[in-house]
Amino acid sequence: MRDFQRPGRSPVIAGNGMAATSHPLATAAAIDVLKSGGNAVDAAVAASAVLTVVEPHMTGIGGDCFVILVEPDGSVHGLNGSGRAPAGASAEAYRARGLTDIPEYGPLSITVPGAIKAWETLLARFGTRGFDALFADAIRYAEEGYPVHARVAWDWARQVDALSADEGGSIHYLVDGRSPAAGARHRQPALGATLRAIAAKGSRAFYEGPIAAEMAAVVQAQGGYLAEEDLAAVAADWVTPISTRYRGYDVLEIPPNGQGITALIMLNLMRELGVEHLPPDSAERYHLEIEAGRIAYSVLHREVSDPATMKVAVETVLADGFTRQLARQFDPARRNPAVAFPKNPSSDTVYLSVVDRDRRAVSFINSTYDAFGSRVVTPVSGIALQNRGACFNLIEGHPNEIGPRKRPLHTIIPAMAMKDGRAFASFGVMGGDFQPMGHAHVFSNLVDHGMDPQAAIDHPRLFWGEDGVLDAEAGISPTVREGMRARGHQLRDAARPHGGGQMIVIDEENGFLVGGSDPRKDGCAMGW
Question: Organism's domain of life (predicted)?
């Protein structure tokens, strides 16, 4: 039970359906779909479409999408909607330009957008409504305008210089050369027209014809490789989620090329090392999680890639023997200097969760990777193209070395927890490379420390920056900071909060849904 004299909010509890997203307008759109008879899949797509308009720096139709869906009968489905590198994007072509790393932004960072194909694939199998009905709110907000919320405005203001350098970015995402202020009305009529075309003709309107031709032409004019043939060849793939057993729950993640495997490695280490016995707000607990994270992320950056090029089996990495081997690197008294700090690029993402009255649970994530993706925006169609190619590398022979039609190592990961063969918690924590750490921390809050979904998400976070220094959110106490420094960690105040998250728990005993939404964003959970 929270302290009602302190700032905060209670979890939302309802019986007929619930949605939790990072923006109130998206949550409202999802609830409207549920109340009118649509299912959780329909509601999730409607919410995601709204988010591409009202959180344009965080997500977009020029990005990718992953989904975990659990049907009322307990059947589990995973969808990988990540796009591939263009056919012309060979490592040799990049090296011929004198590059040793993939550029973080610009035309050479662009991969094929997979989101629209993923939405269509998901709806075709499990939805009850089409794009024409589900895009209505998104189109209205794009054409008539929407209010810019506080966190959106704060993030947007940081991207003015990058947007000013791009023709489409200046046209569609700046107003008189400035980002819109909090509370201002912002319109995106070009994006509205693009959404109308997709609503009328399906994904073919996006991946073929004038819209696809413009995307390819804009990228190629700036020296990139994206071609119309790459867009026409897009596919979203049904996959079997991978899992681990943690404290009586089966925690599910999308398999590689996603980094969800990292969260499972972390949970295995936390289980092996007994994190549940440590007080939730103690230096001992944060030290264990940070060290387990560093170990798990080292495995990620060494081994994980497009599954076609991975050199180690997922089963090997998640095996108990491998976990025990990794756990030997943990010292409860000090930071292990032998474990490297992997480079963690910043990124921006939206995650949402929906559960309907039948207890169909959808864990859904959509992103253009960094803020406004590659910072290349199509002038006519208003599409911000993702920079997901920046997640590849140019290390010869590495499993994640860039290659034609290859999927990159991916940061965005939805999660789901099962109990006795039924969905228990649909959750996710956005925020680039922080996401596996966020999944492990939030789920541990829930099942190890008995927090409700809102409290589990609210709880203070700690994560490392690119230089290895730990960025401590304001809620990390002086006692924890002192204890971490005593164990050899360097800390500083975090300049920005770590990610954001949503969670919906299915309370079978009482017949209710219990939801929480991260105060680090503008969003909310709502039920009916």
Answer: Bacteria
Question: What would the two tokens of residue 178 be?
Answer: 């400035």
Instruction: Identify which of 270, 276, 275, 334 has the alpha carbon closest to the alpha carbon of residue 296.
Output: 270
Burial class (CB in 10 A: 0-12, 13-18, 19+), 176: exposed
Instruction: Report d(CA 314, CA 175) in Å as an integer.
Output: 48
What b/e string do you get for 77-95 counting C-beta neighbours within 10 Å, with b at 16 or more?
A: bbbbbbbbbbbebbbeebe
> Residue 62 and residue 166: Cα distance in Å, rounded?
16
pLDDT tens digits, one per residue of 226-284 = 999 999 999 999 999 999 999 999 999 999 999 999 999 999 999 999 999 999 999 99
Residues taking part in catalysis: 349
State the helix-helix crossing angle for 478-486 and 283-303, rounded to 10 degrees: 60
> What letter would DSSP give residue 97?
T
Contact assessment for residue 95 and residue 409, using Cβ atoms and an 8 Å cutoff: no
Write down the domain spans for the chain.
16-236+352-391, 239-247+255-346+431-505+518-527
3-state SS, residue 297: helix
* pTM: predicted TM-score of the whole model, two decimal places: 0.97
Q: Which CATH architecture has domain 239-247+255-346+431-505+518-527?
A: Orthogonal Bundle (1.10)
Q: Are the C-beta atoms of 299 and 310 separated by less than 8 Å? A: no
331 three-state secondary structure: coil
Q: Where are the beta strands (DSSP E) in 331-404?
A: 349-355, 361-367, 376-377, 384-385
The SS3 call for residue 281 is coil
